[in-house]
């Protein structure tokens, strides 16, 4: 019963409006952390790596590479096989970079203390497993690369061509204007 009472008090406290730090602390004017004062600015909003250009993209790719090489692969980089290929030049596969960057952003969010004690479990369940399966699938983006550590390989598979609509718009934009003709079935 005592534990239920404590939990109810905590829920009431969390549900109530926050106190004005300036009115509750004599140190608020000094802006000292933990003593009230101006709120700290929010961290910069993360952007998907595929939206970054130039030095910003390179810096983000360097940080991502450090995380992949120093954390992800040593812990979760299972054996390289035909069923689970890998590529030592994974940074050249845009789709793999996008997947791993999203996985890394989710990891950062879920390891934060605000994510709670189950934050990393949620990351494992909802992000890690799905991303690794998509990246390392036998028919996935790395399927033409290394399938055995004794035979390092790297090959970027061609993607699908543009849709017919895009191709038609490109062709008609570059072709000289023609008079409109009616398409009639031939007999």
- C-alpha end-to-end distance: 88 Å
Largest sheet descriptor:
none
Our count of helices gives 6
Radius of gyration, CA atoms, in whole angstroms: 27 Å
Strand content: under 5%
Mean pLDDT: 81
The sequence of SSEs as H and E is HHHHHH
Structural class: mainly alpha
Outline type:
extended
Q: Care to count the β-strands?
A: 0
Helix share bin? 40-55%
**In terms of per-residue confidence, which ranges show pLDDT below 50 for 5 or more consecutive residues?**
180-184
Key terms:
mainly alpha; 187 residues
What's a concise summary of this model?
It is built from six helices and no strands. The chain is mainly α and 187 residues long.
Report on the structure:
The protein is an all-alpha fold and 187 residues long. It has a domain at 49-135. It is built from 6 helices and no strands. The longest helix is centred in the middle third of the chain and has 23 residues, at 54-76. The radius of gyration is 27 Å and the shape is extended.
């Amino acid at each position: 019963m005592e534990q239920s009472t404590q939990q109810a008090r905590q829920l009431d406290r969390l549900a109530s409006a926050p106190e004005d730090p300036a009115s509750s602390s004599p140190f608020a004017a000094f802006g000292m952390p933990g003593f009230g004062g101006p709120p700290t600015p929010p961290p910069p909003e993360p952007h998907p790596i595929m939206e970054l250009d130039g030095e910003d993209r390179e810096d983000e790719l360097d940080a991502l590479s450090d995380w992949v090489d120093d954390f992800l692969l040593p812990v979760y980089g299972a054996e390289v096989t035909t069923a689970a290929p890998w590529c030592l030049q994974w940074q050249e596969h845009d789709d793999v970079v996008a997947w791993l960057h999203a996985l890394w952003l989710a990891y950062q969010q879920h390891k934060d203390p605000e994510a709670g004690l189950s934050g990393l479990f949620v990351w494992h369940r909802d992000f890690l497993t799905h991303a690794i399966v998509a990246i390392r699938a036998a028919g996935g983006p790395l399927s033409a690369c290394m399938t055995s550590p004794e035979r390092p390989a790297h090959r970027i598979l061609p993607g699908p061509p543009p849709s017919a609509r895009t191709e038609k718009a490109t062709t008609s934009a570059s072709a000289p204007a023609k008079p409109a003709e009616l398409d009639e079935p031939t007999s």
